[in-house]
Amino acid sequence: PSDTGRVLSIQSHTVQGYVGNKSAVFPLQLLGYDVDPINSVQFSNHTGYPTFKGQVLNGQQLCDLIEGLEANDLLFYTHVLTGYIGSVSFLDTILEVINKLRSINPNLTYVCDPVMGDEGKLYVPEELVHVYREKVVPLASMLTPNQFEAEKLTGLRINSEEDGREACAILHAAGPSKVVITSITIGGILLLIGSHQKVKGQKPEQFKILIHKIPAYFTGTGDLMTALLLGWSNKYPDNLDKAAELAVSTLQALLRRTLDDYKRAGYDPTSSSLEIRLIQSHDEIRNPNVELKAEKY
Ligand code: ADP
Ligand code: PLP
Ligand code: ZN
Q1: 65 near 38, Cβ under 8 Å?
Q2: Which ipTM was obtained for this model?
Q3: Is residue 174 part of a domain?
Q4: d(CA 18, ligand 2 centre) in Å
Q5: 57, part of any domain
Q6: What is the Cα–Cα distance from 183 to 161, expressed in whole angstroms?
Q7: What's this model's pTM, rounded to 2 decimal places?
Q8: Is residue 1 part of a domain?
Q9: 223 is catalytic
């Protein structure tokens, strides 16, 4: 492991606003990574707005880009990062890409945010759940589901810390040695649960971080969180708890700034989904001030 790397990031692009690659590329670059984005879609804005327009990349078009890189011997990557994927055929092509990159670099780290939905609602086709479960999770090095996604992948209902820890254990058995459930809502507080299985088959090291829930809805936070977890866990490969503290600390400072800016402009922050103030938070990305500490179990 080294403190930097070359990341292939296959995610959404929006012309305006910060989700997908727009919220992942800049922070990873600030943390010192070379980032090569492939835009799985190019939309005018994120799908939380009343309307959006744009293009969707298909599996063949993804193959074309990979073939172009391959023809020039440009397929050496240390990391692959994937987020929202809209179709089974595109997801299948991503699996082929991962296998190809692993044949070139057996130490390739695959960081997967299994974006499927939130708050009880699925926003990808139902068939995708099965593909994630059976084919994608087994290839992942690190998985960063939210509560709903962890439930979909394990079949568990997660209503407590214990449930969250058990879900992580089930996911380890399926493949990834690092699992971070980025938020579980229990009685108005947010709980992050992290789990690192250092030796296959053995008990994972687990921790939690309690997060004060900000009364507003943000888009792009999950994508940013996963990018930061990739960035920091590569720098601290044996301290997932430290990586998570750093990532959460950046998120909290950035969300506070976002809220303050909206309020100052006279907006009601609870009325719609807020665009994060990513660029303005560059200092908090590079040098997070850790206020929220991880508690080991
Ligand atoms: P996703 O967008 O994938 O559902 P989460 O909701 O788990 O992801 O958000 C990722 C991270 O963003 C959380 O770990 C937390 O640090 C931060 N976050 C998101 N929404 C809030 C909020 N309302 N208040 C405080 N932190 C939040
Ligand atoms: N990608 C696109 C195109 C989106 O519209 C969204 C949310 O609206 C996301 C990704 C995911 O955002 P989040 O990080 O909040 O899960
Ligand atoms: Zn998400």
Answers
A1: yes
A2: 0.94
A3: yes
A4: 8
A5: yes
A6: 11
A7: 0.97
A8: no
A9: yes
